[in-house]
Amino acid sequence: MAVKEKGKEKELKFEDGLKRLEAIVAKLESGNLPLDDSLKLFEEGVKLVRFCNERLAGAQQKVELLTKDQAGKVTGSRLFNSENPEDET
To answer: What is the rounded CA–CA span in Å between residue 8 and residue 19?
Structure first.
């Protein structure tokens, strides 16, 4: 998903997409929009959800790739599951 900026296309950042999605949800939850406006916002929201999910999946794949050892086994996975990171050995 890209955003137009003065004739150029700029890649949307995950954080910006999430902020926009939160704003859309707030507007839709208000219940004060005409049906056509609600549908347009809903459509934009669906696109943003897909975009955010793709970015999260890509980040997860990158983390897994970076934490694999030479044998291809994921190492350091406890990093995300551990209550106390100092327990890592």
So the answer is: 22
